[in-house]
Amino acid sequence: MPKAAALSELARLGIHPRGLNIDLAAAYVGLGRSAFLAEVDAGNLPRPIRLSRTRRLVWDRAALDAAMNGIGEETWGQIDTVMHAIRGGA
Fold first, then answer.
1. Which residues, in sequence order, are CB contacts of 7 under 8 Å at separation 6+?
2. What's the burial of 7, exposed, middle or buried (CB within 10 Å: 0-12/13-18/19+)?
3. What is the pTM of this model?
4. Under 8 Å between Cβ of 44 and 67
C-alpha cells in the first residue's frame, strides 16, 4: 500500500502516526521549524530517533507529549539517555 493511502487509512481509523517528521513534530507542538529545532537544541524538547533502515529522523509523539506535559529537564535528560542506550547509541 502506498504511503499516502496508508496514512489516509490510519486517519480514517482515528490512528495517528507515532513517528513525526520535523515539520509535523514542529506543528504538533505549535512551533515553526526553526523555533522547534532551537528548543530541541536547548534540551527543552526531545531529540529525534534515527530509523536505522531508512536513516530517517522522526520525533516520537509520546515523547513530545511528555515534554509538553512538563516533565522536568533532569527527568527528561534521564529518559533521553536511557532511550539513547536502548537504541544502541543511534
1. 17
2. middle
3. 0.69
4. yes
